[in-house]
Amino acid sequence: MATEKRLSARRKHTLKGCMLVVAGNLLDAEANVKAKERETFLADKCPPVELPYSRDELLELCQKLHEQIIISEDERYGIEFKLDMVLNEVRDLNIKIVDLRGKFKRPRLKKVRMSADAMLKALLGSKHTVNMDLRANLKQVKKEVKEEDKQLRDVGDWRKNIEDKSDRKKMFDS
Predict the structure, then answer these.
(1) Which parts of the chain register pLDDT below 70?
(2) Cα 41–49–40 angle (5° rounding)?
(3) Kind and range of the H or E element at 161?
(4) DSSP states along 55-71
(5) What count of other Cβ atoms lies within 10 Å of the Cβ of residue 61?
(6) What is the pLDDT of residues 80-115, one digit of tens each?
């Protein structure tokens, strides 16, 4: 056995439970920090509105709000434009990486029954005039007939063969 001490199942379970509790507390703290940051950001960007009672003051307030909206829209447009540029650059770099690797998905090819002549004609076009007979290039092998095979084939009269076997059977019986 190994010299290391192994944790029991109960110990592992309690450790996992403690880790989950700590992780939950950290997530809650992070959510609280984000909420506070959001509140401070909104307080800075959007101060509480005090509505004036006169028409001139209301028009002034509307003009200020309109100017703030224009400024925020300009910022948003600039950020979106920069984001689009960065995304396009990332896409182009990914394409370059794939090109440099030389790896791409090869399409699945359909099986086509085609003779060698038809294939050469398709590849070379009208230049191809030589017919390729693949069977003509095969090596010719002559079959030698052995004497034993010849004897087995030339058994002769079947009645004679049966009589020979019956004599052998009589020898074993006696």
Answers:
(1) 1-4, 103-104, 126-137, 145-174
(2) 15
(3) helix 158-173
(4) HHHHHHHHHHHHHHHHH
(5) 14
(6) 999 999 999 999 999 888 888 776 677 788 887 877
**What contacts 78, CB < 8 A, 6 or more positions away?**
none
The per-type count for the chain, helices as H runs and strands as E runs, is 5, 0
Token code pair at residue 38: 């959001």
Dist. CA 66–CA 51, nearest whole Å:
15
Can you tell me which residue has the tokens 């309690």? 14
102: left (phi over 0), alpha (psi -120 to 50) or beta: left
The reported pTM is: 0.35
7: CB partners within 8 A, 6+ apart: 15
Residue 6 DSSP label: P
For the chain, helix, strand, coil in percent to 5 are 70, 0, 30
DSSP state for residue 137 in the 8-state scheme:
G
For residue 14, the surrounding DSSP H or E stretch is helix 9-45
> In Å, how far from its chain's centre is CA 65?
52
Contact 89/97 with Cβ under 8 angstroms?
no
Cβ(52)–Cβ(61) below 8 Å = yes
Backbone φ/ψ region at 40: left (φ over 0), alpha (ψ -120 to 50), beta? alpha
Amino acid at 153: R
